[in-house]
Amino acid sequence: MPLPPAQRASGPAIGYGEVSLVSAAPAMLADFIPALPVLATFVTASLVLALTPGPDMTLFLSKTIAQSKLAGLASIAGASMGLVIHSILVAAGLSVLLAASVVAFTVLKVVGALYLVYLAIDALRHGSSLNLDRKLPPEPLRIVFLKGMLIDLLNPKVIIFFVTFLPQFVSPHDPHAAKKMLFLGLVYAVINVPICSPLILFADRIAALLKRSPKATRAVDYLFATVLGGFAVKLVLTQTK
Predict the structure, then answer these.
(1) Within a domain: residue 39?
(2) DSSP letter assigned to residue 135
(3) Does residue 241 carry a pLDDT above 70?
(4) At what angle do helices 156-165 and 102-126 cross, to 10 degrees?
(5) Contacts of 183 (CB under 8 A, 6+ apart)
(6) Residue 5 covered by a domain
(7) Using an 8 Å Cβ cutoff, are 132 and 209 in contact?
(8) Which terminus of the chain is less hemmed in, N or C, by CB atoms within 10 Å?
(9) Contacts of 161 (CB under 8 A, 6+ apart)
């Protein structure tokens, strides 16, 4: 006697509880992930920021040239951990501000956009800082990792930047704004790894290029100022309408 179709089906049956969990997964992800155009804009800005020379990039390249590629990668890992910690702290702090006052959060967004304009102008006026030290003493990798983490974690400019940059990509009326800021902060930390790792592999060539042609660094400055400045002006106009 042939079996009923339900009994002939292969594989274990899925219970109602499992179905509800599966169907709830996309909704849970939607709480964290911004709309695609917003995410694309954030990734574009983050790529430019990751390529802009600063104290962390100086440490990556200096440790690579003076010690080893492994030391350079350890400093990148430490800096990425610092960015992850920043993301968690900033998302938590701004969620408290948003819960306390939507107006205060909106004011922070306007001030943050103006700060981004300042950063763009400052990049054109003074340029990026990348002074490599070829005589750094060798250190254990755990110390290199810790230095990489602290150079981002204790940098006031990084703190101010995170506080002003992340809110630009969420709405103060979004009930999941804190989750989205956390997600974006983690995305920024992840983006830094594939961008900075090739710099480690070609550290000597990059150092020689920058020494031979300062115009290469200025090109990055202009790219940074153009993308970030244009983006910030758009935000200011949007917020003040």
Answers:
(1) yes
(2) T
(3) no
(4) 130
(5) 32, 33, 34
(6) no
(7) no
(8) N
(9) 115, 119
Q: Would you say 151 and 79 are in contact if contact means Cβ atoms under 8 Å apart?
A: yes
Tokens linked to 214: 């300062």
Domain extent at residue 92: 31-240
Examine residue 4 and state whether it is found in any structural domain, yes or no.
no
Predicted confidence at residue 210, as pLDDT, reads 66
| Contact by Cβ (8 Å): 143, 76 | no
The owner of tokens 């890992």 is: 77
pLDDT tens, residue by residue, 51-98: 777 778 888 888 888 888 899 899 999 999 998 998 888 888 877 877
Instruction: Please give the Cα distance from 27 to 45 (Å, whole number).
Output: 27
Our count of domains for the chain comes to 1
- What sign results for the dihedral spanned by CA atoms 221, 226, 228, 233? positive
End-to-end alpha-carbon separation of the chain, Å?
74
Distance CA 109, CA 106 (A): 5
Query: For the chain, how big is the Rg over CA atoms in Å?
Result: 22
Q: What is d(CA 181, CA 94) in angstroms, rounded to the nearest whole number?
A: 9
Identify whether 2 is part of a domain.
no
| Whole-angstrom distance, CA of residue 177 vs CA of residue 102 | 11
Residue 24 has pLDDT above 60, yes or no: no
**Dihedral angle at the C-alpha atoms of 206, 211, 215, 220, nearest 10 degrees?**
40
Q: Give the DSSP letter of residue 13.
A: P
Contact (Cβ atoms closer than 8 angstroms) between residue 47 and residue 195? yes
pLDDT tens sequence across 182-235: 899 899 888 888 888 888 888 877 777 766 666 766 776 777 777 777 767 766
